[in-house]
Prior knowledge:
This protein is of the alpha/beta class and 228 residues long. It is 34% helix and 21% strand. Strands 3-2-4-1-5 form a five-stranded parallel sheet, with helices on both faces. A five-stranded mixed sheet has the order 6-7-10-8-9. Strand 8 (184-189) and strand 9 form a beta hairpin. Helix 7 (169-178) runs antiparallel to helix 8 (203-211). The termini are far apart.
Amino acid sequence: MLYLIPTPIWNKDDITLRALKLFKELKYFICEDTRTTMKLLGMYEIDYKEKEFFSLTSFTNQWKLNHYLNILKTSDVGLVSEAWTPGLSDPGKSMIQICNENVLPYSILPGANALVPAVVGAGFDTSKFTFIGFLPTKKGRQTALKAMIDSSLRSEWQATFFYESVHRIGKLMQELKVLGFAGKISLTRELSKMFEQQVTASVDEILSMIKNGKIPLKGEFVIWVMSD
């Protein structure tokens, strides 16, 4: 059985009892970052010295994936991302595909992620929305933005959520401004941290808040875009 184990996006209290139970019982873990997972287990005073940790990134080769498959055929394995729920916009999705292709069971634990709090806190009707993961950084970025804006203008699925790096927030706002986007943007950052922040405003208002330091360029961002 492959267990997808959500981990806190920051606040260590946002762990479930079931996740802690699996961290104690399982011997094998496939991790986006093995060092982060070992540090996390240490934080909860779980001895990880007799456990085995394997790395999974977007660059993991087929030989390693086959090795992980062989382990899954005989043992229970925990799948852990850098933070939040594995398989949601991270390399963990490949392990789900491997399980499906080889008819192996898997279980997805409920737990921490950045998307759901951002959706709930947006302040507008989000009964229908689109989630597109991370925007492309270079090739395809403008196409994705245009498609997102066009979709929000003409479709009943008006709200679009996506993740964006702190290093590209200013650039994103400028891109939306150039494209003539006149709707609302909800920006959520530092979820579960001491300085958690959620702002819903226009492109110009957010640009002004970034310039004046009212929106610090720190932490991870979830962006929500909706037409008027």
